[in-house]
Amino acid sequence: MIQLIQDYWRAYLFTDGEHITGVAITLWLLVVSVGLGFCLSVPLAVFRVSTNRWVSGPVWLFTYVFRGTPLYIQLLLFYTGLYSLQVVRDHATLDAFFRSGMNCTLLAFTLNTCAYTTEVFAGAIKATPYGEVEAGRAYGMSRFTCLRHIVIPSALRRALPLYSNEVILMLHATTLAFTATVPDILKIARDANSATYLSFEAFGIAALLYLAISFALVALFRRAERHWLAYLAPRRH
After folding, report:
1. Residue 15 DSSP SS3
2. What single string gives the DSSP state of each residue in 30-42?
3. Alpha-carbon distance 95 to 187, whole Å?
4. What is the C-alpha end-to-end distance of the chain, expressed in Å?
5. From 3.90.1010.10, 1.10.3720.10, 3.30.365.10, 3.10.450.50, which CATH number describes the 2-232 domain?
6. Residue 2 is inside which H or E element, if any?
7. Residue 189's pLDDT band (boundaries 50, 70, 90)?
8. Per-chain mean pLDDT for the chain
9. HSE toward the beta carbon, residue 14, CA cutoff 13 A
10. pLDDT band at 84 (very low <50, low <70, confident <90, very high)
C-alpha cells in the first residue's frame, strides 16, 4: 500500500511526469462538460417550454435521445463509431477532432449533461409562480425582458438542488473516460492495479478521491443554496 502511494500519488493527483492525469483530468472533464452543458441548456430550456412545437419539438427529441440512451454507448459512438465513417475521415477538421479521445469524451459528456440539465431548467421555468411574471408585466417589461430578468434567474435558483445532483452524477460519469484512453482517476487506478496487482488499494484510493471531490461539490452547492434560496426558508416570528 505504502509503495503504491509512493509510486503513483503524483499520477493520481495531477501528472505522470509527461502528461496531466488523475484528479486534474477528472476535474477538467467535469468543469468543461458541465460549464458548456449549462451554457447550452439555458436557451434550450426556454425553447423546450415554448408552445410552438416547431421550437420545442427538436429540443424534446434531443433530450429524449440523450436521456434515453446510456452515456457509455454515446461515448463509443463518438469515439469509434463516427470515426469509422468515411465522410469523417475524409474531412481534415473532423478527422483531427474525432481522432482525439479527449475531444470525443468532452463532446459526449457535454451533450449528455446538457440534455438532463435542459429538462431540469425547463421544469423550473414551468414552475415559476405566475405572480412573478405578472409583476414584471405590471412594471412594463417586455416578454423577453421579463424572461431575462425574472423567469430565468428565478428558475435557476430554484433548480439548484436538482442541478447539484446532476453535477454529482456527471462526476461519477467521468469514470467512463478511460474508455477513450483519457488518463483520469480510474485510468490511473487501472494502471496501478495492472502494475502492482494491489486491486483493493489501487481502486480504494480512486474511491476516496471521488468521495472527497463529491463532498467538496456538495458543500459548494449547499452554500449556494443557503445564499440564493434563503428567501424560501421558513421565517421565524
Report:
1. strand
2. HHHHHHHHHHHHH
3. 25
4. 56
5. 1.10.3720.10
6. helix 2-13
7. very high
8. 89
9. 0
10. confident
Q: Where are the domains of the chain?
A: 2-232
Residue 86, classed as helix, strand or coil, is helix
Question: What pLDDT is recorded for position 69?
Answer: 96
In order, the DSSP letters of 191-209 are: HHHHHH--HHHHHHHHHHH
pLDDT band at 160 (very low <50, low <70, confident <90, very high): very high
Cell (9 digits) for 146:
421579463
The amino acid that residue 235 corresponds to is R
Give phi and psi for 166, each to the nearest 5. Answer: -65, -40
Q: How far is CA 105 from CA 30, 140, 150, 191, in A?
A: 11, 46, 35, 20
Of 126, 115, 109, nearest to 46 (Cα)?
Answer: 126
Among candidate residues 39, 105, 34, the one with its CA nearest the CA of residue 76: 105
